[in-house]
Give the backbone structure.
Amino acid sequence: MEDSEKKAPSVIDRYFTRWYRTDLKGKSCEDHCILQHSNRICVITLAESHPILQNGRKIKNINYQISDGCSRLKNKVSGKSKRGGQFLTEFAPLCRITCTDEQEYTIFSCIRGRLLEVNEAILNKPDLLLEKPSTEGYIAVILPKFEESKSVTEGLLTREQYEEVLTKRNQQEEPC
Amino acid sequence: MLSFKEKDRPIVRKLLCAGCCVRCVLRFCCVGTCSAYRRSYEVSHDPENHLPTNKRLRIDEGSTEGSVTAAQTDSDICPVCLGVLQDFCEPTFAKQVSDAVKNQQYEFDSLVLTVSLPAQLSVREHSCWLHVKKEIREKSMCLGKEDVIQVKDAFKWAVQGKIGQELGAAVLSSCEVSVGFMHPETEEDCHFLANTCPDCFKPTKNKASIFTRMAVVKALEKISEEKFSRSVFSISETSYCRYNKFSRELPQTPWVIDGERRMDGSVEELIAAPLLSSFRADGFNFSSSGREDVDVRTLGNGRPFAVELLNPHRAKFNRTEIKQLQETINQSSDKIRVRDLQIVTREATSRMKEGEEEKTKTYSALIWTQKAIDSTDLEFLDLKIAQKTPLRVLHRRPLAVRPRLIHSMSSIYLDRHHFTLKLCTQAGTYIKEFVHGDFGRTKPNLCDLMKTNADILELDVESVDIDWPPAIPD
């Protein structure tokens, strides 16, 4: 076996497909990465280009209470068919993140489906989100409807398309 | 005394020997008078042995005397009506029904009794009729199935009058008193019909079981006598064994999505094929004490499994023949191997399923680490972990947190980024998720313990720690 610093295909590479949504709600660079498992379950994460992950920002607060009547923390599913989970559409807010420089960002669902869980570990340890945004710092897990398993990623960008967007931005030198 | 005739003698004898109750005997002799069913028949107990004996009947009305005693059976219950025409036709039960009706305080002056009987009674009735028919044919007599009195009618004749008396109502049609019988212990009697006449049993949303009375009766009409006798009188044979899986590209059961086969072959099919042909069976049911993923090998003594062979045409095998069968399976593929093949009764399956929940399993995993390690990094302790349902099975399992115990771990250093991890864990532990952490949803995980990113490259099941089925010496 080789002595190597390079990673073998990771868990994400083996089981997931990466999809992207950029400039959410017209806000520059607020990019999300949706990890879609081969069993159709999707994990919502911040894309590496998201402002929260730039310039050494620190997180002050993460709030899953998105309105007076709705907290994502109250989400409860039961049984195999995950009854009771809040149903989300593409622009349903998942949480609001405030950084120490008072900038506020909303993280969105990006896909239609039933909310299974939100990541409570990042409430206690926001650094997880900064250090491991694609794994332990995930935001939420969503289960699309069976009939929509394939169509749920229509309108999302593939990894290649995302990289093209990044290249264009760098050329235009947009600050994030 | 009783309404039997000389010609009924052989039927009476045959049914009593089978353990039938008096009213069922009357039915198969086509006795159509209500009074015969209404009178009380009590079981007399043998004073010497303190065991209940079946009723003694005397045949008279001009025939030769003699008494016919039924065979002593372990239970008094009639195998055809399952007791419906026994104690439930006695005054005590009639009183019970009447009291129940009285408690509801309905006002009525006439009633009608309706009865619902479980579907499996049709199977037993059919079986009994075939049994009797053989006897009749030999004596060149005639007995149509329609001539036999139905259990429902016999019951109503026996009980309706008494209930009416208790409730002070004439038996007409205004108020319906319905008595429903259920017997869950024998519900499986009907199941073989689903194999022989599958088009009679279609699932519908409203019914809990596809074995409705109508479906069962239809199937009984369709099935040939020969097939019926074969299905009912041959017990399905169950073989027990342990299997090894040496391939990392073999699912345990056929992998089919949307009608399309995703991977060729399966442990189940490789094992069952030779068994199906040797036992000349129509089909099989495969079950095992847990299972492993496609890419996981099963080593050591192997995993206990059972194959139930349906409607085997051949059921008797001696030790040598079973050994031969085991050899045949082992020669057929290098991807699997079986040991300790033996034939047992169906009850033994529960012991095997025990292993899934309660027993420990031992694994060997090839681990990759991101940071360079040396052998001192590999010292582990007894460990309690909490696993949320892994993402890779979350689409078909409920979301929950499972506490699990890692009983012991040991390691074999390979190189700066690889080692073999041996673990002994509580049943139900997801090993892959313990290693890579599953997005931090298994806590603690190996990455936490070793403070590095880690991943699992290969996994083998070394043993399934259940000492059953018993080992067969070579």
